[in-house]
Write a structure and sequence with these properties.
Length: about 110
C-alpha cells in the first residue's frame, strides 16, 4: 500500500491508523507492505482491521485525527494536495480502511 512520505511518518509515529482510498481491493485481516513508491521495498507492514465505504465529505473530526491530522479541515487540504487532479469532492465515494502497524523498519519501535 502506498503512502506519501509525510503520511508514512504519521503512520510510523502511531498518529495515522486510518486511510481513505479509491479502491476497495484491500481485505480485512490481511497484512500489506507500506511503501512510498513502486520500486521501493516495504518500509513497514500494516494489518487491515476495518473497512467501509462513505463519501469523502462524511469524514468526522475523530476520523480526521485517525488519518493523522488535527481536524477535518486540515485533512481536506491534505487530500486536495495529494489528489490535485480531482481535488476535494465531498460526494466522492471512498473506501475507509482502519489499520494497525504490525512491523516497523529496523530500529523503529511500534507505537
Amino acid at each position: 500500500m502506498f503512502f506519501s512520505r509525510s503520511n508514512l511518518e504519521r503512520l510510523l509515529r502511531g498518529k495515522k491508523t486510518q486511510t481513505r482510498r479509491l479502491s476497495g481491493r484491500y481485505q480485512v485481516g490481511r497484512t500489506y507492505g507500506v511503501r512510498t513508491w513502486i520500486y521501493e521495498k516495504s518500509l513497514a507492514r500494516i494489518r487491515i482491521t476495518g473497512k467501509r465505504q462513505e463519501t469523502l465529505g462524511e469524514i468526522s473530526e475523530e476520523d480526521a485525527r485517525r488519518e493523522g491530522y488535527k481536524d477535518a479541515e486540515e485533512f481536506k487540504r491534505a487530500w486536495s494536495e495529494l489528489h490535485r487532479k480531482m481535488g476535494w469532492q465531498p460526494g466522492l465515494l471512498v473506501w475507509v480502511y482502519d489499520f494497525e502497524l504490525v512491523e516497523a523498519p529496523a530500529g523503529e519501535k511500534l507505537p
